[in-house]
UniProtKB/TrEMBL annotation, chain A:
Entry keyword set: Cell membrane, Membrane, Transmembrane, Transmembrane helix, Transport
GO cellular component: plasma membrane
CDD domains hit by this protein: TM_PBP2
Membrane topology reported for the UniProt record: Multi-pass membrane protein
GO biological process, one term: transmembrane transport
Protein name: ABC transporter, permease protein 1 (Cluster 1, maltose/g3p/polyamine/iron)
UniProt xrefs under InterPro entries: ABC_transporter_permease (IPR051393), MetI-like (IPR000515), MetI-like_sf (IPR035906)
Domain of life where this protein originates: Bacteria
Transmembrane domains' residue ranges: 12-37, 77-100, 112-132, 152-175, 219-240, 272-292
Family the UniProt entry places it in: Belongs to the binding-protein-dependent transport system permease family.
Compartments reported by the entry: Cell membrane
Domain ABC transmembrane type-1 per the UniProt entry, residue ranges: 75-288
């Protein structure tokens, strides 16, 4: 009798029950409820929640409505942030991982240091960098001045400096996370591949290009996907560092959704907005997936 | 020669990378005036713990209370995740029942659902449960960890069946096999999941900012933004707050680095 057959199905459901209660209540039900809310004029604090059909979606797509501009402004902010942060968060951590993959003294200490900021919360990271990037008393402007660069940049309230700050801080904060994933990928590449490349006369650059990069493709795809999703969900950095300034230019989509739904209690509209953002994200994920598949296909043939 | 040069470059870059955190730690021991002095100083003169004394006792920003809240919430959340996910993952890895494939597929597919979709409806649900402005709102909803089930399911499936078989031959019940054979063998995986859950919950920001209102009910992360609005130019206080909010996670990280880094690199899904 196999291990699996020793117990009745009832036992299995007992094991599953505690998790399924949580999962049903806080994951499955909300997905459906979110759609339902998005079809209503839904204010948590009011008793009446009239059904409005697709009006919330129509509003978000019609240029005359009150919500059109702030919503698409915030989508644009999320877009800008994603476009600039994702490539950096794909390339810089790879460089760090390649360095950490060499043998040298104290390698584990270096690795620990590069990962350390990631264990800090976004609130800590935001508060800390708001201080360091302060236009007048911040250490960053002070040291830039010392080496002869402009020393009065308004990092948190002017463009494009605010984007440089938000992207830069995010790269500093999360590069260790991506680097660790790359590092695991690098350690999985078999030494034989490098040996074979050497026999074929490949230098270190050629073996990086023809062995390392192709072998890392699945890892790179994974890093790209999770980084896009993380960047598109950016909230805390803008909430704490710039509070959306200048104007609402750095207010991201999540920031807009949270403010609209959980502060102004226009939950129907916020739920609709979060569905639009989600569809964008899923579309993007499919595109990224397709891109890596396509590249894989042509190289294999 | 080139090797030494490369090593030097690496040391300099690493020092530069971590210098903001060192500067912040030092600033938290400065006087209010020295904290905003230009050019900035590195070594506090005089060295003072004023900032800590002030924030830990202030009534509108009770940082010590926030610390306890965060500790309680993150611990309870980690326990809840490990208990519910290990039970479910074991059933999915080792038991036969109708609908198993569907349940597993349903759980795994939610790994790809962007969490933003849950925020608005979960606020409504938590409100209906009368959990708004309580720690239950921080502890329970995020404990439904699809990642945890997926992660432990893979681990349990990789354990050798013989040990469980022989326990059954010795007359053990399913529950005994799970608690006396499987769980002890899974300590590293359980520790990794507990640690990642604790870190994630401790650092969660958007959700606590909106579901907790009273000053005494904040978590440290949400509290930091209250602290910032209350003392926007008192950088000595803000940096002391940032240090208090970071010390537990940094300590955990230093003590259990292997679990944190391996957990991330093996799965990477927690992001």
């Amino acid at each position: 009798m196999s291990v699996a057959r020793r117990s009745s199905a009832g036992v299995a459901w007992l094991f599953l029950a505690p998790y399924l209660v949580l999962f049903g209540t806080f994951v499955l039900a909300p997905i459906v409820l979110g759609l339902w809310i998005s079809l209503h004029s839904w204010d948590f604090t009011l008793p009446g929640k009239p059904f409005v059909g697709l009006d919330n979606y129509v509003d978000l797509f019609s240029s005359g409505s009150v919500s059109f501009e702030p919503f698409w402004n915030s989508m644009q902010a999320t877009g800008i942030f994603t476009v600039f942060s994702v490539p950096l968060l794909i390339v810089v951590p790879l460089a760090v991982a390649l360095a950490m993959n060499q043998k040298f003294r104290g390698r584990n200490i270096f690795r620990a240091v590069f990962f350390a900021p990631y264990v800090l919360g976004v609130a800590v990271v935001g508060v800390v960098w708001r201080f360091l990037l302060d236009r007048n008393i911040g250490a960053v402007n002070n040291y830039l001045g010392t080496i002869g660069l402009p020393d009065a940049t308004a990092w948190l309230s002017s463009l494009p400096a605010a984007w440089v700050a938000l992207v830069g801080v995010t790269v500093w904060w999360t590069l260790g996370f991506n680097a660790v994933i790359y590092l695991a990928g690098l350690q999985d590449i078999s030494a034989e591949l490098y040996d074979a490349a050497k026999v074929d006369g490949a230098g270190s650059w050629a073996s990086f290009w023809h062995v390392t990069l192709p072998s890392l493709r699945p890892v790179t795809m994974f890093v790209t996907l999770i980084t896009i999703i993380a960047s598109a969900n950016m909230f805390g950095q803008s909430f704490i560092m710039t509070n959306g300034a200048p104007g609402q230019d750095t207010r991201t989509a999540i920031f807009y959704i949270a403010e609209t739904g959980l502060q102004n209690f226009q939950m129907g509209e916020a739920a609709a907005a979060s569905w639009i953002l989600t569809l964008f994200l899923m579309l993007l994920s499919v595109l990224v997936f397709g891109f890596f598949r396509l590249r894989g296909g042509t190289e294999a043939s | 020669m080139i090797k030494a040069l490369r090593y030097t470059v690496l040391v300099v870059l690493t020092a530069l990378f971590i210098s903001p955190l060192v500067f912040v730690l030092l600033t938290s021991f400065k006087s209010a005036r020295e904290a905003v002095q230009t050019p900035p100083t590195w070594i506090p003169n005089p060295f003072t713990t004023q900032a800590y004394e002030r924030i830990l006792t202030a009534s509108d920003t009770p940082v010590f209370r926030w610390f306890l809240n965060s500790m309680l919430a993150a611990t309870a959340n980690a326990v809840l995740v490990v208990v519910t996910a290990s039970l479910a993952a074991y059933a999915l890895a080792r038991l036969d029942f109708r609908g198993k494939k569907i349940v597993f597929a349903l759980i795994v597919s939610t790994l790809f659902v962007p969490p933003v979709i849950l925020v608005i409806p979960n606020y409504e649900i938590v409100g209906r449960l009368f959990w708004l402005d309580t720690l239950l709102a921080i502890i329970v909803p995020t404990a439904a960890s699809a990642f945890g089930v997926f992660f432990l399911n893979q681990f349990f499936a990789s354990l050798p069946l013989e040990l469980e078989e022989s326990a059954f031959l010795d007359g053990a019940t399913r529950w005994q096999v799970f608690t006396k054979v499987v769980l002890p063998l899974s300590k590293p995986a359980l520790a990794t999941l507990a640690l990642l859950s604790f870190l994630t919950n401790w650092n969660d920001f958007l959700w606590p900012v909106y579901v907790l209102f009273s000053p005494e009910n904040q978590t440290l992360q949400a509290g930091l933004s209250t602290l910032q609005s209350a003392n926007s130019v008192r950088y000595d206080l803000l940096m002391a707050g940032a240090v208090v909010a970071s010390v537990p996670v940094l300590l955990l990280y230093l003590l259990a680095q292997r679990f944190v880094i391996e957990g991330v690199s093996r799965s990477g899904l927690k992001g």
